[in-house]
Prior knowledge:
The protein is mostly helical.
Amino acid sequence: xxxxxxxxxxxxxxxxxxxxxxxxxxxxxxxxxxxxxxxxxxxxxxxxxxxxxxxxxxxxxxxxxxxxxxxxxxxxxxxxxxxxxxxxxxxxxxxxxxxxxxxxxxxxxxxxxxxxxxxxxxxxxxxxxxxxxxxxxxxxxxxxxxxxxxxxxxxxxxxxxxxxxxxxxxxxxxxxxxxxxxxxxxxxxxxxxxxx
Length: 196
């Protein structure tokens, strides 16, 4: 290759491409640097996760909410009186019940696909910030449990609940529970999408 030719940067690995972009002599090779920057931008855009839309997240949340409401019926039938008479005990029972329902109803899809049932039907999943599917433990212990406990605190719980919901309007669409757990909700890559 002569000094005037621009290499075919499309064949470079991501690591090599970024290394060349960081080390190229831009004053000596301005044309190469420009082509290199274009390829880096194209590759980075391609590698960016496609965040789930607010509509997709809302629809998934509605499905999960319907499941949650149905799951509360036996709780109120068998423990409703006790929960009203002893608020602290009631709160602990509600938290334990919520965790049990999360494990029983969503456990399979969370463990295998990082998806609640609602997210499964919408082809979206919970991911860590490095694009890997989030683990079941992280989803349960860091994403679900803290926000569940916080929203049950008398007086301020409802405010926390609203803050969590309205944070969906941030540019990165990450709610409070996402920030606590270091997660985001993304569309599944095409190769992993399920036709329902």
